Amino acid sequence: MSAPTRSPFADALAALTRQRGVLGSMVVSESDGIVVDSNLQIGLHGSAVAALAASLYRKARLAAEAAGFGACGFFQLEAERGRVCAVGRNDLVLVAVAEPRANLGLIRVEMLKAVETLG
Amino acid sequence: MSDDVRRWSDALARDPSSTVFLQLGEALRRQGQLDLALRVALRGLERHPHLAEAHDLLARIAADSGDLQRAFDEWDMVLRLTPRHAGALKGMGFVRFREGALVDAERYLAEAAECDGEDASIASALQHVRAELAEAGGGGDEPDDEAAPAAGEEWAAPAPTASGDDPRTLFEEVVGEARQAALLLDASGLVLAGAYILADGRDVAQAVGAELSGVSDEARRAMRHLSLGDWSSIVIETEAATVALAPAPGDALLVVAAASETPLGLVRRVLGRAGERARGWLAGWP
Known about the structure:
In chain A, 34% of the residues lie in helices and 31% in strands. By secondary structure, chain A is of the alpha+beta class. In chain A, strands 2-1-5-4-3 form a five-stranded antiparallel beta sheet, sandwiched between helices. Chain A is globular. By secondary structure, chain B is α+β, with helices and mostly antiparallel strands. Chain B folds into two domains: 2-135, Serine Threonine Protein Phosphatase 5, Tetratricopeptide repeat (Alpha Horseshoe); 155-283, Dynein light chain 2a, cytoplasmic (Beta-Lactamase), CATH 3.30.450.30. Helices cover 53% and strands 14% of the residues of chain B. Chain B has helices spanning 2-14, 21-30, 34-47, 52-64, 68-81, 86-98, 102-115, 120-135, 172-175, 205-226, 264-283, and strands at residues 155-156, 180-185, 191-195, 197-198, 231-238, 241-248, 252-259. In chain B, strands 3-2-7-6-5 form a five-stranded antiparallel beta sheet, with helices on both faces. In chain B, a hairpin with a 2-residue loop joins strand 5 and strand 6 (241-248). In chain B, helix 2 (21-30) runs parallel beside helix 4 (52-64) and helix 3 (34-47) packs antiparallel against helix 4 (52-64). The longest helix of chain B is centred in the C-terminal third of the chain and has 22 residues, at 205-226. The A-B interface holds A 48-49, 52-53, 55-56, 59-60, 63-64, 66-82, 84, 97 and B 148-153, 204, 207-208, 211-212, 214-215, 218-219, 221-223, 225-241, 243, 257. Strand 3 (72-79) of chain A pairs antiparallel with strand 5 (231-238) of chain B.
């Protein structure tokens, strides 16, 4: 019996979700919001987060481009009860959802490293 | 807001001929639920085809959806039903501005200002369009393809003006001499205060604001579904700049843009200070 296929994003997602305060991370298709791979803590609804985060990132990317700021890199949203971070490449978006207390600087560094795995 | 939506939905279910669909549709529009808002507006229009406010609602939904032609047509209908409707004139001015037809935009906004001299957003938009017209030498109505800055294009801090009451200088002290700009936009994406001046002297505040204003609707929608509460800031790092957004009172939106090499922490600090400034300024309006 052959071993299950391991996603090329698995290690990066695991490293990201290990960061303090990170509730989950995932790779999402930007165009349709479908989850490609994820590493989530219990209680996080991956498909909903994926669809909404991808849509939000896409909107921000297109708006930034239309406003003349050029290609979009790292995106972060802060809300009362959490943070959403995203960075995209090649129609894929790496998304992390974190608690408000999470260290944003560390998450950003980890995500910018991990985005290299998106090709 | 969701309590209001529920209350208005119930009221409409009890009495489908009620005009409460206006409040319901507007609330849904502000929440970014444009498809639902459109259905509510269209159903209301079936029963109240001659109600100017219903066409106004439909126009705002169309504008949010990016369908500027439909928005313009609906506002045109509003004017037929209620001549000198300030909201419709302002909306038509906004559409013409987005299309680059500055002379037309100025005409509509000037008429809107005559009809409602107390609406700060109309006065600010008119001032902005007139400034752009002056820069263009009173130019024609050809679309201005260079309204937004090109990626990496240099910008300058807002130029000091003689009048301390000029809303374009509201954030001057906050952004300082650095390569930063701050804008305050109303719910329609029109500039209320602040400036975004490129190194060649062009103020591209309206073009930048119009493009970025839709992001806040999307954020509101996402936060509602994710149960993360109200959003307080968004930071977008791009090739040319770091752009930070924050909500402001009255569905306004604050935008700060800084050169991409500006430390992120500093951008967030400027956003916070600009927010305080904006809240103080908005509180001064009746």
